[in-house]
């Protein structure tokens, strides 16, 4: 019985430990990359591109087929061995092999292999871009949870000060030093802070649920993240010019790579379409034989030898008139190529605009963060000064609570500015070409 109890406790402890797992940022990103539905679909696109390439390679191989048939003939039929009409019931059989090889098809098979490589490259670019986007989304959601938790800590910490202030004010009121209105003011401040704490707790839970949904985790109740002190890294990127970052982004970002690859694909489709206007040359080889029970003079093997035949040769097909299909297909693909060229130009312009916007956002976030730091320092001094004056009765509870509230708000604004600045720095680093797995938080 003791052994069973010991095993149960071990299992329970293991389940509880799993349920109370604290997810790190790296674990969240990896979970999203492993489970995200869009990424799984992009991986299937990559597998499909590999199959297309296999098809293109297969076009260079000769075709080889075998055939056979057995039939029972009744009534008037032609004997396959003598080619004479007969009304006798008889059994016949035939078989053969055929082989073919395309010698020239306007180089379309060769260009199909090139196109298949471009398709695979496009699928790979699409997958990697999606992975970057998902990782950045997860990082943003993770930082939002951290921000909400930091704000909750500030509110709880300051509420502890308020509760101590209530006891202190009550003693002053009971001693006749302070008016009762001061106690009521501090109690009202405490009630407001409790409401703010409740709202902050809800904000934490909502952000956790949102992150869990992004990670496809359904156990919302036990999901939590590992808290840590996220420092500010990568500020040196702001020393670079927007032009330098844009130049790197055009070489590294997948938006431009995908657009360039799509243009290459469209131009390759034009070449393939032009190939349809050229002649095709095929080589063929065939072997066949037959058997009939009408031939009673020769055995089965002898008939197969006597009735066999071989055919081989070349087949030339020259397109002359096909209802303008080949010509129109070339024109249609030329239009698609022109559209792809325009899309590439637009992708480059959009990237340049996005980089400049991200650069300005990061600079603005830095200024906001620095201003928030100064505001916290000033409000902390003002709060300390107000507390000293309140303790000796030089200001009332209302004025002190206003000073405390301004200090609380300054700390919350600093938290918001810090994590906003961190995130916008990461966006700028991604544009510069820093891989997602090398971003420091």
From TrEMBL:
Keywords: Cell outer membrane, Coiled coil, Membrane, Transmembrane, Transmembrane beta strand, Transport. It comes from the Bacteria. Its main location: membrane. InterPro entries: OMP_efflux, TolC-like. The keyword Cell membrane does not apply. It is found in: Cell outer membrane. The keyword Heme does not apply. Residues 249-276 form a coiled coil. Belongs to the outer membrane factor (OMF) (TC 1.B.17) family. This is TolC family protein. It comes from Leeuwenhoekiella parthenopeia.
């Amino acid at each position: 019985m003791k052994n069973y109890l010991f095993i149960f406790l071990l299992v329970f402890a293991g389940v509880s430990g799993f349920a109370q797992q604290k997810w790190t940022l790296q674990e969240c990103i990896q979970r999203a990359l492993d489970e995200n539905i869009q990424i799984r679909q992009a991986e299937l696109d990559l597998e499909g591109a590999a199959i297309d390439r296999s098809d293109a390679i297969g076009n260079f191989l000769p075709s080889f087929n075998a055939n056979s048939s057995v039939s029972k003939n009744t009534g008037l039929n032609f004997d396959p061995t003598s080619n004479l009409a007969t009304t006798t019931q008889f059994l016949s059989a035939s078989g053969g092999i055929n082989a073919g090889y395309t010698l020239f098809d306007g180089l379309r098979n060769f260009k199909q292999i090139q196109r298949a490589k471009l398709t695979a490259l496009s699928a790979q670019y699409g997958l990697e871009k999606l992975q970057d986007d998902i990782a950045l989304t997860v990082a943003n959601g993770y930082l939002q949870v951290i921000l909400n938790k930091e704000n909750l800590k500030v509110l709880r910490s300051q509420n502890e000060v308020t509760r101590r202030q209530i006891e202190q004010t009550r003693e002053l009121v009971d001693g006749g030093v302070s008016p009762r209105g001061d106690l009521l003011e501090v109690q009202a401040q405490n009630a407001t802070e409790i409401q703010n704490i409740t709202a902050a707790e809800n904000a934490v839970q909502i952000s956790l649920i949102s992150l869990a949904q992004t990670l496809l985790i359904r156990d919302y109740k036990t999901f939590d993240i590992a808290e840590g002190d996220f420092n500010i890294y990568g500020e040196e990127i702001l020393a670079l010019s927007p032009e330098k970052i844009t130049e790197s982004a055009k070489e590294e970002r997948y938006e431009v790579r995908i657009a360039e690859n799509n243009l290459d694909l469209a131009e390759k489709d034009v070449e393939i379409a032009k190939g349809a206007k050229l002649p095709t040359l095929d080589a063929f080889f065939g072997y066949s034989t037959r058997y009939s029970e009408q031939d009673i003079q020769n055995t089965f093997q002898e008939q197969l030898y006597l009735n066999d035949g071989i055919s081989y040769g070349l087949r030339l097909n020259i397109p002359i008139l096909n209802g303008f299909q080949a010509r129109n297909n070339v024109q249609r693909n030329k239009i698609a190529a022109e559209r792809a060229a325009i899309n590439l130009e637009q992708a480059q312009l959009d990237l340049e605009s996005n980089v400049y916007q991200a650069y300005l956002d990061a600079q603005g976030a830095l200024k906001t963060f620095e201003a928030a730091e100064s505001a916290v320092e000033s409000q902390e001094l003002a709060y300390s000064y107000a507390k000293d004056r309140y303790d000796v009765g030089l200001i009332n509870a209302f004025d002190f609570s206003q000073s405390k509230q301004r200090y609380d708000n300054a700390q919350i604004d600093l938290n918001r500015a810090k994590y906003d600045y961190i995130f916008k720095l990461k966006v700028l680093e991604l544009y510069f070409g820093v891989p997602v797995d090398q971003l420091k938080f």
